[in-house]
Specification:
By secondary structure, this protein is of the alpha+beta class. The protein is about 35% helix and about 35% strand. The strands form 2 sheets. Strands 1-2-3 form a 3-stranded antiparallel β-sheet, with no helix packed on it. A 3-stranded mixed β-sheet has the order 4-5-6, covered by helices on one side.
């Protein structure tokens, strides 16, 4: 994508605070994280992976729409499934668009999937389905 550096970096530091909990620092953001196995309802490592995918796709979709000269609003939900010992085994990404028609929404998603580094990383590990909803 024009104007975007070829290489980007993601960085986070985590410190354990209990047997199933950590504090994660991402730039100026600090976040309490707990294992999915703890039975808690807070942020978890696997939810953070889904959040990374959903947020990257939403940002990229906005960037692509802007490059195409349209004002689209998009919400992205990532539902990922993991297996202990295997990692990512599948998932689906749901895109909800308003302000564009179905053909343009599909074009935006195709361009996003080609360029999003998080999607590209995860789609190499497992098949990620897609659902596009135009409201």
């Amino acid at each position: 994508m024009e104007g975007v550096p070829e290489r980007l970096e993601g960085r986070a530091v985590a410190r354990s605070v209990a047997s199933m909990a950590a504090e994660v620092e991402m730039g100026s953001v600090r976040l309490a994280v707990e294992s999915e196995l703890s039975g808690g309802s807070g942020a978890s490592p696997l939810a953070l992976i889904a959040a990374g995918l959903a947020s990257c796709e939403a940002i990229m979709a906005s960037m692509v729409a802007e490059k195409l000269g349209v004002s689209a609003r998009v919400a992205v939900e990532a539902r990922l499934e993991f297996s202990l010992g295997e990692g990512l085994v599948g998932g689906v990404v749901v895109y909800r668009f308003s302000g564009v028609d179905r053909d343009l929404a599909e074009k935006i998603v195709e361009l996003v999937e080609r360029s999003c580094p998080v999607y590209n990383t995860l789609s190499k590990a497992a098949v990620l389905g897609r659902e596009i909803i135009v409201e």
